[in-house]
User: Which sequence fits this backbone?
């Protein structure tokens, strides 16, 4: 038999029908929906007079429009309130599980799926949200879809999709001090550029990913989209199985044993061929920070901003980006003033991220010039923060813990960075205005965010650990 990749094994098992010179009709195991992209899809069902084919395969949670303070009060913004209400109404009408505001299972869609055991190896998973690739950390094929495709999955549990090409990214060796999964992914994107994986589905392999926690793997797969990939995935292993065992919606008893036997087959065969492959050395990665207006404009925190000649995109585009950020070529990022710090999002809103943040904050005080938004990815994460004593560390240092939601990842709720202000953010995108009109975003890890939060400037976390 011809050696096959992990991606091929999962993809081919879900093809319902192949269309000659066209896309595959592709079965979807899990469909996550939230309040932003689903209302129009449900309206389409109404217009056509059709229902939801498998309501038990669809899971709804509110996250993008949710406030992160006073969630017990009515939502003030009328558009947000309408979208949240529509999600609740549509879920009830079609018998879809719905975790709205104040539900103990509520949280960011890509956080609550894995922590409740809905996300499993070998599955196909979609959501009307580009960062659905997060779920690929479990050896699933997961990707974002558009509103019309949300309607298609609701009505047929299938989607029409051309099969992407295959890429493997290997990172081998041992990571240095204060280098986190976020730094690994920012490094890879900086090397490949934001278009470097366009048209590909990426498998991450090598020592670094094998030794990474599930939280870390989710961070890496989450940002596959930022280098143009359709999605990213990591082969399931004992780390995956340990994470999943006993979670609410994972198989139990004999069903668990049967599932486990299948999951252990989900790995790339030794001689399988990829369309493109890259290999990086872990020793070359240091804590990272972005300086521009796309996630590929990142450097090691000790390095200087590169010159236009050494980056892709042309001088005019580069100058525009640096002008927006208020930075210049060859400047050091260290010591640059910070106004806001945000830890949270589907990239870095899990318990491991808050443990890292607290490791630097402990025994220190929040800088007076910094406004900090500390936002857990779910109520389950919020409970862990309190149970583990992280809440006490944060409070003693002068930080306030907010309630779960997408928060300042995107300017779609109350948590907006003001124009001209600098935010060190653990989220995934630093486009112009992404976190608020005129806002300036520096993407970084929870450790770099914590270092900025206590010093008030961009600081190398290695100096504080």
Assistant:
């Amino acid at each position: 038999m011809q050696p096959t990749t992990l991606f091929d094994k999962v993809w081919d098992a879900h093809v319902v029908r192949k269309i000659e010179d066209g896309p595959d009709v592709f079965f979807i195991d899990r469909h996550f929906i939230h309040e932003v992209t689903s209302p129009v899809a449900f309206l389409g069902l109404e217009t056509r007079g059709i229902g939801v084919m498998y309501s038990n395969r669809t899971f709804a949670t509110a996250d993008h429009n949710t406030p992160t303070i006073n969630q017990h009060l009515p939502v003030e913004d009328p558009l947000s309130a309408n979208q949240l209400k529509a999600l609740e109404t549509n879920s009830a009408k079609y018998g879809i599980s719905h975790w709205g505001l104040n539900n103990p299972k509520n949280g960011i869609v890509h956080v609550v799926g894995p922590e409740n055991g809905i996300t499993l190896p070998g599955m196909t998973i979609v959501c009307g949200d580009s960062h659905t690739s997060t779920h690929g950390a479990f050896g699933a094929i997961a990707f974002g879809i558009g509103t019309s495709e949300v309607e298609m999955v609701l009505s047929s549990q299938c989607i029409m999709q051309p099969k992407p090409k295959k890429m493997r990214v290997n990172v081998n060796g041992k990571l240095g001090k204060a280098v986190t999964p976020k730094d690994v992914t920012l490094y890879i994107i900086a090397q490949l550029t934001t278009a470097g994986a366009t048209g590909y589905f990426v498998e991450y392999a090598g020592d670094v990913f094998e030794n990474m926690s599930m939280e870390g793997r989710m961070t890496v797969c989450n940002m596959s989209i930022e280098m143009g990939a359709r999605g990213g995935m990591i082969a399931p292993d004992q780390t995956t199985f340990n994470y999943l065992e006993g979670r609410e919606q994972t198989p139990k008893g004999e069903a668990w044993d049967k599932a486990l036997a299948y999951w252990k087959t989900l790995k790339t065969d030794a001689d399988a061929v990829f369309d493109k492959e890259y290999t990086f050395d872990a020793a070359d990665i240091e804590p990272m920070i972005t300086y521009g207006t796309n996630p590929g404009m990142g450097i090691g925190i000790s390095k200087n901003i590169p010159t236009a000649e050494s980056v892709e995109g042309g001088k005019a585009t580069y100058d525009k980006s640096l002008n927006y950020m208020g930075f210049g070529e060859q400047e050091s990022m260290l010591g640059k003033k910070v106004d806001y710090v945000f830890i949270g999002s589907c990239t870095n809103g899990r318990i491991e991220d808050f443990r890292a943040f607290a490791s630097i904050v402990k025994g220190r005080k929040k800088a007076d010039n910094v406004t900090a938004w500390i936002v857990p990815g779910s109520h389950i994460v919020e409970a862990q923060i309190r149970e583990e004593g992280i809440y006490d560390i944060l409070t003693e240092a002068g930080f306030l813990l907010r309630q779960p939601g997408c928060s300042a990842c995107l300017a779609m709720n109350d948590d907006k960075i003001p124009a001209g202000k600098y935010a060190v953010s653990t989220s995934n995108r630093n486009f112009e205005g992404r976190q608020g009109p005129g806002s300036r975003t520096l993407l970084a890890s929870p450790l770099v965010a914590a270092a900025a939060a206590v010093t008030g400037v961009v600081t190398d976390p290695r100096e504080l650990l």
About this structure: The mean pLDDT is 96. The chain has three domains: 6-161, 165-232+262-284, 290-463. The longest strand covers residues 165-172.
